[in-house]
Write a structure and sequence with these properties.
The chain is mainly alpha-helical and 294 residues long. Helices cover 66% and strands 8% of the residues. The protein folds into 2 domains: 204 residues, Alpha-lytic protease prodomain-like (Up-down Bundle); 68 residues, Cation efflux protein, cytoplasmic domain (Alpha-Beta Plaits), CATH 3.30.70.1350.
Length: 294
């Protein structure tokens, strides 16, 4: 328990520092983006703001996952992590529209851009995003939320490098259209990640099988167990962005033991990452016409 407590404190500190640094940097980018008339800086500010939301949502997800079920919420509030991910994606789509509108206007009517200021501010972004990514490097192997935070921050560092390059090219060539062009590159990066976030969140909200689970392999694993002659009404879905549940009917003519169920649950957790599994054991198949499960 002490190890878990220390781990949670480390995670909380990493999220608090990461969120604080990136909120401050978003404010700096917006201020100097307007001052330098740079849509690339403003686009990067939008990108970093989206990742601040991602950090907040990931931190919230870890907190919600620790809450015990209460009252009518028999699974707790784990599903809110999925709903919040969908909201995040919708907000990002709205931000992309605003960024694109500004960039299109500057392509049609190019305006002077302070390339040196763009380079300095984006350079600060490279440092902040790299530091934030390093905060999550150690824990990213054990937790998908932390891994997502690490990847977001690492990608942000790369995008900020791109903005530095845009500022340098503007100074060297005087071509101010490079600034809005870089905005569209950043928009493409945001859309790529946001579309994946939206579709994955939508699938999880509709109780689809999580993408990292091969339900056929799960079915075959259950059927391979000694004494199991048939598996039906198999369902696998996400209770949250980090927790997966399973229910299944196992036909076992000779019956089963509590030890068999406990070992099977542990196998599903170890082999497939399914942490919550429930089985109905039958001596012969019981058809349920109301259940379309596989």
């Amino acid at each position: 328990m002490a190890h878990s407590h220390i781990k949670n404190n480390t995670q909380n500190r990493a999220f608090a520092i990461g969120i604080g640094l990136n909120i401050a940097f978003v404010g700096i980018e917006i201020f100097y983006g307007l001052l330098a008339n740079s849509s690339a800086l403003l686009a990067d500010a939008g990108h970093n703001a989206s990742d601040v939301l991602s950090l907040i949502f990931a931190w919230t997800a870890i907190g919600l996952a620790s809450l015990k079920p209460k009252g009518k919420y028999t699974y707790g509030l784990r599903k809110t992590t999925i709903l919040v991910s969908m909201l995040n994606a919708i907000l990002l789509f709205a931000a992309v529209i605003a960024i694109a509108w500004d960039a299109i206007g500057k392509l049609q009517n190019p305006e002077p851009v302070a390339g040196t200021q763009v380079m300095i501010v984006a350079g600060i972004g490279v440092i902040i995003n790299t530091v934030t990514a390093l905060l999550f490097m150690k824990g990213q192997k054990d937790d998908l939320n932390i891994r997502g935070a690490f990847l977001h921050m690492a990608a942000d560092a790369g995008v900020s490098i791109g903005v530095v390059i845009a500022g340098l090219l503007i100074n060297l060539t005087g071509a101010h259209w490079i600034d809005p062009l870089m905005s569209f590159i950043i928009i493409a990066i945001i859309l790529w990640g946001t579309w994946r976030l939206f579709t994955e969140s939508l699938n999880l909200a509709l109780d689809a099988v999580p993408k990292n689970i091969d339900i056929n392999k799960v079915h075959d694993h259950l059927l391979s167990k000694e004494g199991v002659t048939d598996v039906h009404d198999l369902h696998v879905w996400a209770m949250s962005t980090t927790q997966i549940a399973l229910t299944a009917h196992l036909v076992m003519p000779e019956g089963n033991s509590d030890k068999f169920i406990a070992e099977l649950q542990q196998e599903l957790k170890n082999n497939f990452g399914i942490g919550h599994s429930t089985f109905q054991v039958e001596k012969e198949k019981v058809d349920d016409d109301s259940d379309p499960g596989c």
